[in-house]
């Protein structure tokens, strides 16, 4: 017997009680798990009366003060009727007399417009139908580019890890070779005090930047304490603190200079306002409690400091004003460095420039969760349900936006996040874009198998993405990989969001590789991603080697299957006219890599992106999901500078073939 009141509350809260797994089998969330998740969402549900009261409270909370609409389409304003005055962003005012249905006539100007009515006011965000398009390359060619891990780059001056300066150098050299785009992993703020937290996908805040990537030339560093910079793997425990010490010295010298010009810094700080200051306060507090107590996040601080508006925090900020200024200073330098890298790429002729990456979630112990936790899910992680690759499901140890928090704040944190990502980019990639429709929630301390899907305000989010994209002139890519909900790809395509067509995943129901001609124009063609073994490594089974090493499992069947897959992939290359003859042996990946690059470049997609590992014939992946210390995640460096690698004869040959394919 089902608990009807509980299920009604779950539906009102956006939880999906019945769903299909990766194999298409129907699944039902247990009542016990529903109660756990609803309680974490802040909805009492111990009794039917509790459930009914919580559902009624939700209905009242949904009274809108922020509504999204499509350009040229009437929009219903819930609970509003009679005379209203609309003030467009331009300042123009228009009066309407709404009927009982609250239907506002179509608005033909995109933007954020104010509505005043008898009971108060609200904002209508009117969105264009589609995001900004991907710009064409020179002469109308279809653009292409490289995906790089910033830390992996090597610049003219050897440093312990790559940074925005090395990124600018690589962009300069890449533009000269015909590239139009340079995709990067997230550069969100991490935890500056903790060198052990270097994954770019576990940020403290998505509104601010990682200051470790500040261009060393901007602060007068030519050789930092990482030595000659020739190591293959980064030692973050040594390199991170050394770079922070150099940044602190530059800060101290800057403000000790009586002839300094603080005007640009002061303007940046003023524009950043209280939110920037709160982030800096968090960084100062986290640094103090990490050094003195080993605290991993604000939850481990003394109780008085967990309230960002409390007296203890105010006293700390007053006593540590210089430290707080230091962290604001870092954000100023990081913003200038990233802007410089994008500016150089565009000035050198790249049609797109940087493609920024927007991580799906946040570290629950970070800056955003401390300063504005009401905007986020609390007591719940996000992840993925069990599937063929992860039988136990996944808990990523991250949090994300609460639908109720977004509605309550007029989607302001989502808009700020988009603007931060688009500030210095020609396109952005939304990590796990499926989260625009639904997120898999995992209760704190529970198994991912005990989770449930939470519906997100998809249409509102898609409209806001389109609006901000058009305003910034920034194209949008959505990572639509994994268990894709029915109709999702059509929904994002209708908004002009580019999907991803990643070579190893482009197969039909029988597992055969699809012709590249079928990949479609409204997508990004890719040979692999940072979470996949590069093509050369796939061909020679480096991923299977790692699996065997880490699990001890017998890989004989997997290697036999890989041999069949190699033959199938080579057959797709032959059918496309890319190659002729028999497939090369498993220990001879170069012909297969060259063919994979040409095959992917020849797809009709509006953009093609190739990981640096594939362009340069590297067989190891930047990241191996499911591992922490067992694999050198986010530590591998490229074997040479961008100029040297791009000038290597084998790489020159590959790049020329890509240029030819993209010009057709």
Automatic annotation (TrEMBL):
InterPro entries, per the entry: GH, Glyco_hydro_77
Gene Ontology MF terms in the entry: 4-alpha-glucanotransferase activity
Keywords recorded for this protein, A-Z: Carbohydrate metabolism, Glycosyltransferase, Transferase
Catalytic activity: Transfers a segment of a (1->4)-alpha-D-glucan to a new position in an acceptor, which may be glucose or a (1->4)-alpha-D-glucan
EC number: 2.4.1.25
Superkingdom: Bacteria
Gene Ontology biological-process entries: carbohydrate metabolic process
SUPFAM superfamilies linked to this entry: (Trans)glycosidases
Family: Belongs to the disproportionating enzyme family.
Record-linked NCBIfam families: malQ (TIGR00217)
UniProt-listed PANTHER family: 4-ALPHA-GLUCANOTRANSFERASE DPE1, CHLOROPLASTIC/AMYLOPLASTIC, 4-ALPHA-GLUCANOTRANSFERASE DPE1, CHLOROPLASTIC_AMYLOPLASTIC
Protein name in UniProt: 4-alpha-glucanotransferase
The organism of origin for this protein: Allosphingosinicella deserti
Gene that produces this protein: malQ
């Amino acid at each position: 017997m089902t608990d009807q009141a509980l299920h009604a509350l779950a539906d009102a809260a956006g939880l999906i009680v019945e769903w299909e797994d990766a194999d298409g089998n129907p699944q039902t969330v247990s009542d016990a798990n529903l109660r756990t998740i609803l309680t974490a969402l802040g909805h009492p549900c111990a009794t039917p009366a509790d459930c009914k009261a919580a559902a009624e409270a939700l209905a009242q909370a949904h009274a809108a003060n922020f509504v999204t609409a499509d350009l040229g389409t009437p929009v219903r304003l819930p609970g509003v009727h009679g005379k209203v005055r609309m003030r467009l962003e331009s300042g123009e005012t228009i009066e309407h007399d709404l009927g009982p249905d609250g239907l506002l006539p179509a608005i033909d100007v995109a933007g954020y417009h104010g509505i005043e009515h008898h009971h108060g006011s609200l904002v209508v965000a009117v969105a264009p139908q589609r995001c900004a398009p991907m710009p064409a390359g020179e002469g109308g060619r279809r653009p292409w580019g490289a995906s790089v891990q910033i830390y992996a780059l090597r610049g003219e001056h050897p440093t312990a890890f790559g940074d925005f300066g090395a990124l600018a150098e690589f962009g300069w050299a890449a533009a000269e070779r015909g590239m139009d785009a340079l995709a990067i992993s997230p550069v969100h703020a991490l935890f500056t005090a903790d060198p052990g937290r270097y994954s770019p996908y576990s940020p403290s805040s998505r509104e601010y930047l990682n200051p470790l990537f500040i261009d060393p030339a901007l602060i007068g560093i030519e050789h930092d304490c990482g030595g000659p910079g020739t190591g293959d793997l980064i030692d973050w425990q040594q390199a991170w603190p050394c770079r922070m010490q150099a940044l602190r010295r530059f800060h101290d010298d800057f403000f000790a200079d009586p002839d300094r010009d603080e005007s640009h810094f002061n303007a940046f700080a003023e524009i950043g306002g209280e939110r920037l200051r709160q982030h800096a306060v968090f960084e100062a507090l986290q640094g103090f409690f990490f050094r003195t107590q080993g605290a991993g996040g604000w939850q481990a601080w003394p109780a008085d400091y967990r309230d960002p508006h409390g007296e203890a925090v105010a006293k700390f900020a007053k006593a540590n004003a210089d430290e707080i200024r230091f962290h604001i200073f870092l954000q100023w330098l990081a913003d200038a460095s990233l802007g410089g890298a994008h500016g150089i790429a565009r000035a050198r002729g790249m049609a797109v420039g940087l493609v920024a990456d927007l991580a799906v979630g946040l570290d629950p112990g970070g800056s955003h969760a401390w300063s504005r936790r009401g905007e986020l899910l609390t007591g719940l992680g996000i992840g993925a349900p069990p599937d063929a690759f992860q039988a136990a499901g996944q808990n990523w140890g991250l949090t994300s936006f609460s639908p109720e928090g977004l509605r309550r704040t007029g989607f302001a944190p989502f808009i700020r996040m988009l603007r931060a990502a688009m500030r210095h980019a020609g396109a952005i990639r939304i990590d796990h874009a499926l989260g625009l429709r639904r997120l898999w929630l995992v209760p704190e301390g529970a198994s991912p198998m005990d989770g449930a899907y939470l519906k997100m305000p998809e249409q509102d989010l898609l409209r806001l993405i389109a609006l901000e994209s058009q305003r910034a002139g920034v194209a949008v890519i959505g990572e639509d990989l994994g268990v894709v909900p029915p109709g999702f790809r059509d929904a994002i395509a209708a908004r002009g969001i580019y999907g991803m067509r990643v070579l190893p995943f482009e197969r039909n129901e029988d597992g055969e590789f699809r012709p590249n001609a079928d990949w479609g124009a409204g997508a990004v063609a890719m040979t692999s991603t940072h979470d996949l073994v590069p093509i050369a490594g796939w061909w020679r089974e480096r991923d299977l080697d790692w699996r065997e090493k880490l699990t001890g499992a017998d890989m004989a069947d997997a290697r036999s299957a890989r041999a069949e897959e190699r033959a199938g992939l080579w057959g797709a290359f032959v059918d496309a006219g890319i190659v002729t003859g028999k497939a090369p042996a498993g220990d001879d990946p170069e012909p297969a890599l060259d063919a994979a690059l040409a095959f992917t470049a020849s797809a009709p997609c509006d953009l093609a992106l190739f990981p640096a590992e594939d362009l340069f014939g590297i067989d190891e992946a930047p990241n191996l999901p499911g591992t922490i210390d067992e694999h050198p995640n986010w530590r591998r460096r490229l074997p040479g500078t961008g100029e040297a690698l791009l000038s290597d004869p084998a790489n020159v040959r590959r790049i020329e073939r890509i240029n030819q394919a993209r010009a057709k």
